[in-house]
Amino acid sequence: xxxxxxxxxxxxxxxQIAVVKCSERCLYHAAKWAAELLDALPVPSAADLAATKGLxxxxxxxxxxxxxDPIEAALEANELSRYLLAKSLFDCKEFDRCAAVFLPESSLxxxxxxxxxxxTAAKGRDKGKPSVILPSExxxxxxxxKSLFLALYAKVISGEKRKEEDSEMIMGPQDLGxxxxxxxxxxxxxxxxxxxxxxxxxxxxxxSQGFLxxxxxxxxxxxxxxxxxxxxxxxxxxxxxxxxxxxxxxTNLITRLEQLxxxxxxxxxxxxxxxxxxxxxxNLYQQGGDTAASLTxxxxxxxxxxFLLTDKALLYYHSKDLIAAEQEFSQxxxxxxxxxxxxxxxxxxxxxxxxxxxxxxxxxxxxxxxxFRPESCVVIGNYYSLLSCHDxxxxxxxxxxxxxxxxxxxxxxxxxxxxELKNTHAAIESYRRAVDVNRxxxxxxxxxxxxxxxxxxxxxxxxxxxxxxxxxxxxxxxxQAVGSCLQKMGRDRDGIKALKRALLADSYYDSxxxxxxxxxxxxxxxxxxxxxxxxxxxxxxxxxxxxxxxxYMELCVAQEDGGVAxxxxxxxxxxxxxxxxxxxxxxxxxxGERATAGEGTGVTVATSKARMWLARYAMKEEDYETANRLAxxxxxxxxxxxxxxxxxxxxxSRMEPTSVMES
Length: 663
Prior knowledge:
Blueprint: H1 5-24, H2 28-40, H3 46-51, H4 57-60, H5 70-78, H6 80-91, H7 95-102, H8 105-111, H9 118-127, H10 145-166, H11 184-201, H12 211-222, H13 226-239, H14 244-253, H15 257-263, H16 271-283, H17 289-301, H18 306-318, H19 322-335, H20 343-352, H21 356-370, H22 374-386, H23 390-403, H24 408-420, H25 424-437, H26 442-454, H27 458-471, H28 476-488, H29 492-512, H30 530-542, H31 546-558, H32 605-620, H33 624-637, H34 641-662
Region (Disordered): 563-602
GO cellular component, one term: anaphase-promoting complex
Pfam family, one: ANAPC8
């Protein structure tokens, strides 16, 4: 995906104007995002500039142009001094004063019909009845859309600030998560009236700029009215597609791939829609080649974009290719060493890979840049967790939540720490808060399942595991948890189905983890998780289907050499291409003579149990030579030696009379 010189300069012009427009409305994050994207565009060469001589000057030298609509331009010019005062107050975080410049509280009460008649109010108090609100006929003020947005946005931010002040201590006895933004009702009523008035006036209005639609959509999201919110947010990006805040709100509303496919045709067809689709796909944990190809095309246009490079690293991360994800984050940190965004994800990767020196360096770097950023606190918390200082880790995750209660990583990781501290009640509450922040967070759903499984509440655990598996249908770990839970509930037939799906899911990651052709992936053999195979075999044994049980036990033992027991594998067909970088059970013992470096899992507890079962089965079937061979291998492995020796003695005693008779 390449751009011509003309298109590149037009894109540069548009992004510069977007930065200015978002900054004028104090949408700082959207302005920063657009500015970073602008900075990632390659500098135009002299030849490119020469090729654009025939273009209008606005394409070559973007200027801070006034509003092209004459009605809005006149209003903005008339209220310029008040707008500059309001913006200065917003920048100084005096949000109530900022809103009062254009929308004083007394005027708002009149405009929204919330003025109370004094005599009626007095009578109501005497009789213990609520006050009567009189309808108001006062029209909305004639101010520009830019100033109106700034005033109403200041109201919303003021309400959020007061909500944080009224909230109790994180995870305290009174922290129920029920405190709301009291300004939302007023802003919602005002915008409803404003949009209704525009519909009545029809063509007499100035065209909408898209920002008030964005604000109304944001308010509707906070009021849990997702359907109406999506409608206004889509309208917002159609009117002004360069406000990344609106795209992010749409992304947060989309919970399934079907919703993304449904909303895509309604969006404007430009590069912003292309960026949104790639980002939303990654948020939905899609790892197909299309997403990787989209990112590659976008990086051809914005080669140093920190946002797109972060998405590329997260694509590897969600594909379980942690080595490649770590390399991408490391390169990103080299390009933007002061950027803290998404470093909490990087710290998760370093934690899983057990790279303590790198995690220590990252924690020190974040602390030196800004120790009071939520991302910094999460990184430091992960470092203490790796050191097994779980109390200190919880302390830093709490600090991250004090700075930002919507910090998803902090809620989820704090739940993990409480599990380590055996505080299941606090762990469940942390995971529930993470789900409230983002219902797509499969780690929180999985954590809830694990915690309830520890409490031996398997029905609850199964429900949460299924939610996690629904979000990550191609993650074998999710289906393995579902299958194990079903096994404990005695539902062996359903458990077998879930565990077979876990094997198929791992084969999906085998084929999709390297969509970019990374060199960071390791060689993958035709190998399955022996623990899963053992569980399937045990359930078949309980169902008294010995042929299937024997086939899966043999397949489990075959994983020591990275091979399969037969060409197709029992009950699975040819569709299983299995990952070779997941060595079965964590408690396995490595190192038997049959294990080859880089091939298979070697001897594990699971394969030894399968070998013991096969030895007993051979004894029952009077195949004493096979039983003797398997038991001898168990003695060599050093697993269940005493029972193996007993089997050897019994097998040889049965074999001796047979050999005497033959002679």
